[in-house]
Write a structure and sequence with these properties.
Its EC number is 2.1.1.266. The chain is of the alpha/beta class and 285 residues long. The protein has helices at 13-29, 53-58, 76-86, 100-107, 124-131, 144-151, 172-186, 205-212, 249-264, and strands at 37-40, 47-49, 96-98, 113-118, 137-141, 159-163, 191-198, 219-225, 237-243, 271-278. It has 9 helices and 10 strands.
Length: 285
């Protein structure tokens, strides 16, 4: 447990998908003046040096954000991601990649709040540093799943829960499902976003079937695969499970994902998918 270090994978294709969707969710929340609360259950470092020893070791960002870096005008949502990354690289060179808590913190208005939870003792100080000086953002050391019970529902009644675990624990999917059930009971109107990996030796479909059976309505799935499944490669894509997706998000994803696939996929391999898992009436999509 806690052996995973996201710094080795920062800026890869999975980050591109996750952060593109995350920014779209935050911008949807910002459309109303009312305050919102974000709980990031597995926050990580918050900010990553792409030329540092971890990211440079595997260089996964070269097949992710680096393939988009010099591109503008493909789509406003892709531009929003590039602008967020550019804010961390004022010299115009791609040296640093923001993690989800820093992306969220920079999107907060004066009335909004972020709680970024991280359980890894070695990572937590780096998270605190990444959020230093960003108003409305607070870091907490602990179990992100336990934080759900402690901090939901938020007093403002609006917000987002981001669940992005490493999936290194055998019972991680069960813990995610228990978390989704808890959120549905305590914060039914909230938006929930869950990142999940696409791995050749662990199909996502059985877990998605289990989620569909939880009795939670209005669930959308978005997946981006950039290569054919291969044990030699490992992670060949990822997905975002979205509960209560805001109005207009689905058509945006249907525009953005094929553009990302065209830029990130190896020789056109892989696929993109946007599909209803459970509709608003609770029926399986």
């Amino acid at each position: 447990m806690f052996s995973y270090q996201h710094g080795f994978h920062a800026g890869n294709h999975a980050d591109v998908l996750k952060h593109s969707v995350l920014l779209a969710l935050l911008d949807a929340l910002r459309r109303k003046d009312k305050p919102f609360f974000v709980l990031d259950t597995h926050s990580g470092d918050g900010l990553y040096a792409l030329d540092g020893p971890q990211a440079a070791r595997l260089g996964e960002y070269r097949e992710g954000i680096a393939r988009l870096w010099a591109t503008r005008g493909l789509h406003p949502r892709i531009d929003a991601l590039l602008d967020a990354v550019a804010a961390e690289n004022p010299d115009g060179e791609l040296h640093r990649s923001p993690g989800s808590p820093r992306l969220i913190a920079r999107r907060l208005r004066a009335q909004d709040r972020l709680l970024a939870v991280e359980g890894h003792t070695g990572v937590f100080p780096r998270l605190c540093e990444a959020l230093r000086g960003l108003p409305g953002a607070r870091a907490e050391h602990g179990d992100g799943y336990r934080a759900l019970k402690a901090h939901l529902p938020p007093g403002c009644g609006r917000g987002l829960v981001l669940i992005d675990p490493s999936y290194e624990s055998r019972d991680e999917s069960a813990r995610v499902n228990a978390a989704l059930t808890l959120i549905h009971k305590r914060f039914r109107q909230g938006i929930v976003a869950v990142w999940y990996p696409l791995l050749p030796n662990k199909p996502a479909q059985p877990w998605l079937d289990a989620v569909a059976a939880l009795g939670i309505p209005d669930i959308l799935r978005a997946e981006l695969s950039v290569a054919a499944p291969s044990p030699a490669r490992g992670l060949y894509g990822s997905g975002m499970l979205l509960i209560n997706p805001p109005w207009g998000l689905e058509p945006q994803l249907r525009e953005v994902l094929p553009l990302l696939h065209a830029r990130l996929a190896a020789d056109g391999a892989g696929y993109w998918r946007v599909a209803t898992l459970v509709d608003e009436q609770g029926r399986r999509g």
